[in-house]
Amino acid sequence: MAERKKVFVTGCFDMLHSGHIAFFEEAAKYGDVNVGLGSDETVFNLKGRYPVNNQYERKYIIDALACVKECHINSGSGIMDFVKEIEKVKPHYFIVNEDGNTIAKEELSKKLGIEYIILKRIPHGRLPIRSSTELRNECTMPYRIDLAGGWLDQPFVGRLAPGPVLTISVEPTIEFNERSGMASSTRRKAMEIWHTDVPPGNREQIARVLFGYENPPGTHIIAGSQDSIGIVFPGLNKIDYNGEYWPAKISTVHDEDILSWIEEHLYLIMLGPRENNYHVLANTFINKGNAKALSVAAEKTWDALLAKDLKKFGEFITKSFEAQIKMFPNMVYDDIFHVIDKYKNSACGWKLSGAGGGGYLIFVSQEPIKGAIQIKIRRKTP
Questions:
Q1: pLDDT (tens digit, 9 = 90+) per residue, 59-116?
Q2: Are residues 10 and 118 in the same domain?
Q3: Contact 268, 372 (CB under 8 A)
């Protein structure tokens, strides 16, 4: 009788639900499933909270599943906490979901001679798509992505060259990593005061409340107001700054054709969270010329979005990113350029989420990018 193939999967798997089971069952079609389970400390470091069920309870539940051969608690840390476990198991296949796909995992698989397989999130039968976030009833508070112009909301940049920051409010269709450049720290503040969602009412007043709550008197480093505005305002937003913390004007697009077009052409590749010692404000080159290049690129990105011009969207989102890293070189490191090099031939533009140092690389592409995540933009409610 032929030896059964071995499969390795890894994750947090907190509050086990039908989405987890569907993933295990799909992986089991390739062979015996060995699970690498993130420890409580790793979950805290990646997600900013401890799991609901501790590592021993999660291991017990997973070991009890008929579709799982064995569960191991990972001994490492970070998104690559499973290295010792996968080397011990020596699987034929390493299987991940799209939102767990990273270059580091793919390259480790290649190094170890393991076939790397990326699965789509497909629920079983008629069951809905589930996430642990949804089960904790935290799923409705949006994140935000800044598409261009980020840093112009800080007066030490905006006073050199006024200009816009472009943001989209993003539904939490997956549990995006903490410290990911998607305003996750501002989102946590929003959940402290509103719990599960942005309240109804005047959007600018609500965003001002969130901005003030995140930046009380005496705050040393002020979080930019684009974070609170990007979370509170649905749709696509052009936030015009003129050297102050609060913008002179906020313009919002709710046109369904434009929002759907953006969703169709944006792809996210996970890099992992920022390191705790990350310091973006070191070694800066902030001057009027560099700030002006950022402002111009953001304006041209806005024009490209309104025209649904994919080539120019890709060109100017990249120019905005290049202007950012020219002023703030600590936003990037060699591994980030390595990921860009891997995907840039299939994309027409790219940037980092937020101020960089980790999180997600955002690509603009005509064709689907294998293993990438797509986002859902929050629409205006009646």
A1: 999 999 999 999 999 999 888 999 999 999 999 999 998 888 988 899 999 999 999 9
A2: yes
A3: yes
| Ramachandran bin of 103, using left for φ above 0, alpha for ψ from -120 to 50, beta for the remaining angles | alpha
Q: Do 356 and 260 fall within a single domain? A: yes
Q: Is residue 377, in this structure, part of any structural domain at all? A: no
Same domain (yes/no): 128, 66: yes
82 in a domain, yes or no?
yes
Q: Whose CA is closest to 175, among 352, 10, 13, 350?
A: 13
Cα distances from 201 to residues 206, 207, 214, 253, in angstroms, run 7, 10, 19, 18
Which pTM was predicted? 0.81
CB-neighbour burial class of residue 358 (10 A; exposed 0-12, middle 13-18, buried 19+) = buried
Mean pLDDT, to the nearest integer, of 223-244?
97
Report which of 297, 270, 222 is spatially closest to residue 369, judged by C-alpha positions: 270
Helix, strand, coil shares, percent, the chain, to 5? 40, 20, 40
Q: Do 107 and 170 fall into the same domain?
A: no
Residue 77 and residue 168 share a domain: no
Structural domain count, the chain: 2
SS (H, E, C) 192-239: HHHCCCCCCCCHHHHHHHHHHHHCCCCCCCCCCHHHHHHHHCCCEEEE
CB 208 within 8 A of CB 272: no
Residue 74 lies in domain: 6-135
CATH number at 74 reads 3.40.50.620
Between the alpha carbon of residue 109 and those of residues 7, 119, 132, 273, 361, the distances in Å are 12, 16, 27, 21, 21
**Is the domain of 76 the same as that of 192?**
no
**CA dist., res. 114 & res. 86, Å (int):** 10
Mean pLDDT, the chain, rounded, equals 90
Q: Which residues pair with 97 in a beta bridge?
A: 119
CA atoms of 291 and 157, how far apart (whole Å)? 6
